[in-house]
Structures are given as structure tokens and as C-alpha cells.
User: Fold C4-dicarboxylate ABC transporter from Hyphomonas atlantica.
Amino acid sequence: MIHRRNLLGAGALGLAGAAAAFANPEKAADLAAPAIARNRRRFNMVTTWPKGLPGLGEAAERVAERIQQMSDGLMEVKVFAAGELVPPFESFDAVSNGSADMYHGAEYYWTAKSSAYPFFTAVPFGMTAQELMGWIDFGGGQELWDELSAQFGVKSIQAANTGHQMGGWFRKEINSLDDLVGLKMRIPGQGGDVLRALGGSSIALPGGEIYQSLQTGAIDATEWVGPWNDYYLGFYREAPFYYGPGFHEPGASLAVGMNLRIWEDLTPGEQAIIKAACESVNHTSLGEFTYQNAVHLDLLTREHGVQMRSFPDEVVSRMAEAAWDVRADSGRDGIEKRIYESFEASLKLMRGWADVSEGPYYAARNSNK
Assistant:
């Protein structure tokens, strides 16, 4: 990869060299085209998202577009939606074994590989989007993530964030802890572990299979993201009660994972372009989700009669208790323990700041609405 500045310089040198060649033809053979040779890279990206899904699917497409734009077309990324090249939950293995070059998905889908992966998406009563970015970018999280993913031949980078998610869509109201016993809910990651601790059943389903599972009664409830994505998947038609807040994903980060061998074969400049493209989409998506969730929450309640509900205090309290145990159980030894300890230390530190900044601010703002 040759940067524009270098290309300009190479062009100037090329002109000077060409002039010298006319004066001394014997040196013409030394004037190489290497100064203008440009290597092209083409990558396949598999995703865990249904084709055309706003927000999540668009984030993957944006990463691809920005890599191509920033590289002046020298790097091309072809995006395959869930199931087009591999099943959604096989994206990680496809990249790990080299049958695909990149994936875009949620790291907690890979919990079977390591119990530490959910910390790089979201964990119950964990970090908000801003806090997660703070830990990964400045608190040592990226270095630990690199160490974890390298075990599987993958390089992982933040590449979108949904912000705070909703608690989910339910066929029936949740009025007490008893209503969670036997509940079949689509909820992945540590959120599913919390539900099981409260007597429910956690079922992992990709986005494209959720609606039909609600329709057939295979599940009683589902979480997905928030009003924007949920609106387009139509969950309100099958489960009219929309619960919040989302205890399980207070700021869900999505990621690009790249085959490590391919990543290490890139030049530093090419790696910088991919990182910059992912970082750009990461920040763009947070603002977009924040605004579009507000727009579509209004549509759901005003035009479709969705009934908003809050989890009872006893349910939230018990969820919080279970969440601490679930998080601790996921980090008992090895790299998992170091990731857990780093996450918890950073969360404690940043919670102290939130307690004197955003928390009081929201309370004050809401008191005058």
C-alpha cells in the first residue's frame, strides 16, 4: 500500500527519472514501474445479520464501503448477509479457518469458544457504550481482546455500537419473578445465563429466525436490539408487551473479526485503513441508533399500539444479583480471569464518574420535563 503523499513524491521522482532516461538510455531499465505499482486486496466478509437489516446490516456494509473509499479502491470488501455464504453462527469459524476473510457480528455469539467473549459485546448490568469504548480503547481491553482472539487465529476490532438496548418483547406481562419461571426467551450471552438463574430458558437464535419462532410459540419472548431494528423485524405483531430497561445489554458493541494470518500480511498502512474504517462506523452507528430508536419508538407506540412496560423492582433486583454471579463465574482462570478483572476494575472506576455526571443529570433533566 502506498499513501497519497508517497505517490505524489514517487510521481515527481518518476518524472525526473524519465528525463534522465532520455539523456542516458542505458539507465532506462533501472526506472521501474515499482514506484507506481499498486497492490489490490479483495476480501469476503460474512455477517450474522439478515440481509438489508437497518443499523446492524448497514454497519457491515459501511465498514466495507469506507475501507474501499479510504484505500482509493485498492481494498475491496464483498459483504455476505447471514446464510448467503455460511450460517450466521458459523461466521467465527469461517474466519478462523480461513474460508472467509472477515466477519461482522457480536462477540458474545462466540461464548462457546471462550466465556470472556461477552465482555467485548455486553454483559448484564455492565458498561454503557461510552464506558465500553473507554475500556477497550484506553483501559487495556483491546490488548486483552487481541490476546484472546489470537488463540483462534482472529484479529477483532470494534465496528458498531447499538447503545442501550431494550429488555425485550413478551407475549404476556411480567408482574413478578414467578412469570419468568419456565419462560422461553431468545436471549444470548450472559443475559441468557441470568434468565436461566431465574428459572427461565435461554434460546440462541439468529435474527432471521426470531419472528417465526415467536409466531409458532417456540419462544415466549425475545430481545433483539431496540425500537429501530425491532420495528423492521415486526416483533410487535406477535408479542405486544415491550419491556425496559434492557438489563442485559446496556451498550452492545459489534465487531469486525479478520483472519489473523491475512491481517498480519497487510502493510501497516492497510491495517490503519481497516482500523480507521471500523472506528468511523463504530462512532457513526451510536449516534444513528440513538436517533433512530427515538423515531421508531414513537412509531411503535403511536401507530401500532405497542404497550410499554417496566420490569417490576423485585425482578430488576434479582436480575442484578444474578448478573454479578454470572460475570464472576465467567472469569475464574487464565485469560478469562484477566479479562474479567480488567473489565470490573474499569467499570468500578467509570461508575464513579457516572454517579456524579450523567446519572444526576438525567434525573435533573427528567424532573423538569
The chain is about 45% helix and 15% strand. The domain at 168-249+291-330 is CATH 3.40.190.10 (D-Maltodextrin-Binding Protein; domain 2). The longest helix spans residues 268-303. Confidence is low (pLDDT under 50) at residues 1-36.
